[in-house]
Amino acid sequence: GTPLPATPTGEPLAAEPTDFAQRGAFLTTSSGTRLADTDHSLKAGPRGPTLLQDHHLREKMTHFDHERIPERVVHARGAAAHGTFVGYGTATPVSHAGLFAEGKETDVFVRFSTVLGSKGSADTVRDTRGFATKFYTDEGTWDLVGNNIPVFFIQDGIKFPDVIHAAKPHPDREIPQAQSAHDTFWDFVSLHTEAQHHTIWNMSDRGIPRSYRTMEGFGVHTFRLTNAEGATSLVKFHWKPVLGVHSLVWEEAQLLNGIDPDFHRRDLADAIEAGAFPQWELGIQVFEDNPEQTFDGIDLLDSTKLVPEELAPVQPIGRLTLDRNVTNYFAETEQVAFHLGHQVPGIDVTDDPLLQARLFSYVDTQLSRLGGPNYNQLPINRPHAPVNDQLRDGHGQQAVHGGVAPYKPNSMDGGCPFFAGAEDRGFIDSPVRVAEGSKVRANPASYDDHFSQARQFWLSMSPVEKDHIISAYTFELSKVYEQTIKERQLLSLANIDPVLCQEVATGLGLPAPEASLELVDLPPSPVLSQVGGEWPAD
Ligand code: HEM
């Protein structure tokens, strides 16, 4: 018969509708039947009861009932934007990754987040911030999943569930929602003193950024780059905001939490809408790929340590500009799935045990968060490079694959996808030597120093930054109920610096303990201070 007109006016549908569920001018059921009414359920007479046969009522209600997916187990609250990364060509001597080539433009999607609060929590809490970037390169997707603090709480990923259990709200009362002012957090960091370095960053102004646009980002782990000749280097990635690094002061953060809990996401979206596109430079610190994987005595596989920028300057390798807001929060910000295993030729991982655990964790959580193994087919996750993966079927499968032989080699499908050698931009794992020795559950001795860099951070601060740090520890610890936990944390502070310990102890009305370890004086690192440079004497 005659086809129905696509629209009441008979206009044709858009040639390539962007969303197959919003085509045509008529409201329909999900199976495409045009609806005459969506405001009244089907009843036995105007006063009911409602009839079980009302499929439209049941479909509408069932779909609504299943609208929510689980929020991320960490980093649940996020805000994101699209943009472009342009390579400077300066990384080419150390990496042959195509996206670093001079003038090469790559589409990106960046999601910023808090770590601890739930999806509906406030933005300006004291917390670490996530800075996750998806580069849709021609050679496959590369994800750089970093934070705004250059070190992490733990050295081995097997402790990640523990630190998060300690830092999330208490299981009994589900408080506090999003801050580190509670017993289990301070219990953990005072018992696992490797966390003290990350914690002092949280207690500093870095824990309350002014804006996502004025936040640094760090890959945290050491990564391995390979150049065109096959030579490898170890690197740490840094994002430097073009607007500079700025934080809120505590009182501002508290006011904003009440007045505008969406402050950071509003700021990001408004800036982009107004054409004030936020920008960051991507930079690398480059280290020789020596067998010990150390630099200047610093273990590069220990994510609780940084390498001061005076010792290894950050070299700019490209620029990121965010210039497009998301149009559907769920489809983009919520459904995006980052993963450190998304690598491209020229960029590889190292044996950092924290990084190694992450390689497992993200896929595993996304299988349940995004409902099965096909989440890379979701529009926001789709690579911009061609995909021919021989993965088949499963929940959420959108593709209708042809052929009968999804295995390789095969002699059935009249042509099997090729393997790519290095000349075809195939991903070649760096053939680095792995450690020899017995299997063991232990850390290297270099992981034992938990305080020297926390002390260096403290000594690098200006007086006003030190005041903020003292106030932050005092406020957060004053919320702790258990006296022994406060005392144990004060001992950690004594092992960082006696003045810091004394000031916080005074604020808490407790005696200041003596350090139990010898204080190691590393030279102050001016780059760590947001105020920067020489601070005039009082
Ligand atoms: C998100 C695990 C360490 C940065 C997540 C998620 C998990 C996770 C399960 C949720 C992912 C999702 O639902 O899609 C872990 C484990 C770690 C670890 C097991 C240690 C072994 C780190 C570190 C960083 C980091 C060291 C920073 C360098 C992030 C970011 C997100 C995230 C930015 C949010 C990604 C997004 O915006 O969707 N992590 N994480 N994580 N993690 Fe980690």
Which consecutive residue ranges, at least 5 long each, have pLDDT under 50?
A: 12-17
User: What Rg is obtained from the alpha carbons, in whole angstroms?
Assistant: 26 Å
For the biggest sheet, the summary is: 10 strands, antiparallel
Counting helices, strands and paired strands, the structural category is alpha+beta
Name every ligand kind in the structure.
Answer: protoporphyrin IX containing FE
Shape: globular
- The amount of helix comes to 10-25%
Mean pLDDT: 94
Strand content: 5-15%
Q: How many runs of DSSP E, i.e. beta strands?
A: 12
Helix and strand sequence: HEEEEHHHEEEHHEEEEHEHHHHH
Number of helices: 12
- The N- and C-terminal alpha carbons lie at a distance of 90 Å
Structural notes for this entry:
- Helix 10 (463-478) packs across helix 12 (498-508).
- Strand 3 (129-137) and strand 4 form a beta hairpin.
- This protein has helices spanning 55-65, 160-167, 183-191, 196-203, 250-259, 263-273, 330-334, 353-369, 452-460, 463-478, 483-496, 498-508; strands at 78-87, 105-114, 129-137, 140-147, 217-218, 223-226, 232-241, 279-288, 294-295, 298-299, 315-325, 347-348.
- The model is unreliable at 12-17 (pLDDT under 50).
- The strands form two sheets. Strands 1, 2, 3, 4, 5, 6, 7, 8, 11 and 12 form a ten-stranded antiparallel beta sheet that branches. Strands 9-10 form a two-stranded antiparallel ribbon.
- With 538 residues, the chain is an alpha+beta fold.
- The structure holds protoporphyrin IX containing FE (HEM).
- Protoporphyrin IX containing FE is lined by residues 72-75, 78, 111, 113, 130, 132, 145-147, 152, 157, 160, 220, 336-338, 354, 357-358, 361-362, 365-366, 369.
